[in-house]
Amino acid sequence: MRAELYNWRYESLAEQLSKEMKKRYFEVFVVHSKEELLETVKSIIPEGVSVSNGGSLTLTETGILDLLRSGNYVYYDRASAQTSQERKEIELKSFTVDYYLSSANAITSDGKLVFLDGNGNRVAAILYGPKNVVIIASVNKVVDDVENARRRLQFISPMNSKRLNLETPCTKIGYCVDCNNNQRICNYFVTVESSARQPGRIKVILTTFESGL
User: What is the value of pTM for the model shown?
Assistant: First the structure.
């Protein structure tokens, strides 16, 4: 019964959220399984085009990174970098790709996308550069408003810091503090209100199953 109720809630939420996001000129897709997600990404991104991505647990968990590494795309993979300089060069090349993939850290109930970044390369590419941006996010990331998005980020940031093996205060105590540590990932808080200047450039795939943090 619990699973059925969550499925009902997430599907209802995705349906309503899709309407709100389309008002903001996002192109929106709703998927209900990992298999459907992969097929939807394949339908959006033609083979042979250039692609890259921001850091994301969602992309790893759902098999999207494996798809990008399949050989069917020109993939700028920063994980393949051998040095920090090579990694920086790949990140800069990501601004020129046909499709840039990422997840969102939170989505407001009225359709705004919220991101929190450490280095800024991910949010910078989402805002400007790549011809298309594909955001994949579970509806378990939906919050009432931007202020609640900030609270959600304070909750998940220690877990992301732990996942990345960072030496920050939150990885020691388990909760967020406004630290000045040079490894902190809470540096760039960005809200994308609309894609009105470039309708459809940002494509959002809402999943009704949970993924990421």
Answer: 0.94
